From TrEMBL:
GO CC entries: cAMP-dependent protein kinase complex; cytosol
PANTHER family with a match to the protein in the record: CAMP-DEPENDENT PROTEIN KINASE CATALYTIC SUBUNIT PRKX, CYCLIC NUCLEOTIDE-DEPENDENT PROTEIN KINASE
Keyword Secreted in annotation: no
Source superkingdom: Eukaryota
Protein kinase domain location: 68-322
Classification of source organism: Eukaryota, Metazoa, Ecdysozoa, Nematoda, Chromadorea
Residue numbers binding ATP: K97
Taxonomic source organism: Diploscapter pachys
Protein family membership: Belongs to the protein kinase superfamily.
The protein's name in its UniProt record: Protein kinase domain-containing protein
GO MF entries: ATP binding; cAMP-dependent protein kinase activity
The entry's keywords: ATP-binding, Kinase, Nucleotide-binding, Serine/threonine-protein kinase, Transferase
Record has Kinase as a keyword: yes
């Protein structure tokens, strides 16, 4: 599946000038922010969800690409594909994302691909895919991740057409928990959609595809500097990419409950027009409390959109629709998922589409293009 998010923003990472991990996030403010997965306090001091993160042993386990055998293609992406692979000795399964270097360079996605790797390496959260290691050869870059055998949330939604209020709430809550974690650590996800949300074997959500994720240079909601010299956008919190995640959450909740997104059109430009027109219509059966939340997330003005104000994600977490969610139980996977994927054996890829097309090896990248990935 291809990513549809646009990347017109001024992305700060470049392959050559900024290869440092997230710990170097800095801003115009004098204080700098150090990434610490165990630190649960927000950059501006807001209390984020209590989240005791466990670093799985698996994450640190040695796995090299050469020891992996292809089973089948499970996804096609913008720059390559994702394969289900099997470790020849242990028999364990992994997902291997393959990105063709030449295509990445041609489409000017070097920064995005780097940030996907660097951001994923730093993350450890129950609702975010685990990255094991990365590799490269003369043609491709490789990202070796845990295999998520449940398949895309998208497939389940299309199959059942709509999700019930409580099913939608469960998935939304797991996503809110992941967004809260990302935002707390200064990362905007920017590509929230059902194709990038996978189910684990137990039916929990895992976000994949950090190709558009971005570490933010500035520190949202934090006033710094002398007030007289503050730019209006600093006052109004404009220009913060985190805000797009809350908007997308609104679209996602709507789509789960109605079976289609709120702003539609036959062409991309028609869809854009519909977004600008912003006619938000709800079905009669749409739960009223959920409707209140969706309306507050789909606010055009980012300064008054839920999740984007001074309390950050706490405003979303504390919305009435989530009243029934025990967030501590949620993060510790103690809430029973509404759908348990059907799986017959380890490495079962029955929850994925079948990709029949022959796999082309992809072009060998010229040395000058490979040089861009010396730090990979
Ligand atoms: N860890 C994974 N486990 C199982 N399937 C995955 C995994 N990562 C990606 N996929 C599948 O591959 C598709 C494409 O991967 P993604 O990272 O989203 O690439 P792109 O950036 O091209 O959209 C996903 O939509 C999903 O179906
Ligand atoms: Mg994707």
């Amino acid at each position: 599946m291809t990513s549809s998010a646009s990347s017109t923003e001024d992305d700060s990472l470049t392959a050559s000038s900024d290869t440092s991990p997230l710990s170097s996030i800095d801003s115009d403010c004098s204080a700098s922010f150090t990434f610490d997965p165990n630190n649960n306090s927000n950059v501006d001091g807001n209390t984020a969800l209590f989240c005791k993160l466990q670093i799985s042993d698996e994450k640190h386990q040695e796995v090299s690409r050469k020891s992996l055998q292809t089973v089948v293609t499970i996804g096609t992406g913008t720059f390559g594909r994702v394969e289900l692979v099997k470790h020849e000795k242990t028999g364990l399964h992994y997902a291997l994302k393959i990105l063709n270097i030449h295509r990445v360079v041609q489409t000017r996605q070097v920064d995005h691909v780097y940030s996907e790797k660097k951001i994923l390496e730093q993350l450890d959260h129950p609702f975010i895919v685990n990255l094991f290691t990365t590799d490269q050869d003369e043609r491709n870059l490789y990202i070796i991740m845990e295999f998520l055998p449940g398949g895309e949330l998208f497939s389940y939604l299309r199959e059942s057409r709509v999700f019930s209020n409580s099913t939608s709430r469960f998935y939304a809550a797991e996503i809110v928990s992941a967004l809260d974690y990302l935002h707390t650590h200064g990362i905007a996800y920017r590509d929230l959609k059902p194709e990038n949300l996978m189910l684990t074997k137990d039916g929990h959500i895992k976000m994949v595809d950090f190709g558009f994720a971005k570490k933010l240079r500035d520190r949202s909601y934090t006033m710094c500097g002398t007030p007289e010299y503050l730019a209006p956008e600093s006052l109004s919190n404009k220009g913060h990419n985190k805000a797009v995640d809350w908007w997308s959450l609104g679209i996602l909740i709507y789509e789960m409950m109605v079976g289609r997104p709120p702003f539609r059109g036959k062409t991309t430009s028609e869809i854009y027009d519909a977004i600008v027109e912003h006619k938000l219509k709800f079905t009669r059966s749409f739960n009223l409390v959920a409707k209140d939340l969706v309306k507050k997330l789909l606010v055009v003005d980012r300064t008054t959109r839920l999740g984007c104000m001074k309390n950050g994600s706490l405003d979303v977490i504390e919305h009435r629709w989530f009243e029934k969610i025990n967030w501590d139980d949620l993060i510790n996977l103690r809430i029973k998922p509404p759908i348990i994927p059907t799986l017959y054996h380890a490495g079962d890829h029955g929850n994925f589409d079948f990709y029949n097309e022959p796999v082309e090896p992809g072009q060998v990248a010229p040395q000058r293009e490979r040089d861009l990935f010396r730090e990979w």
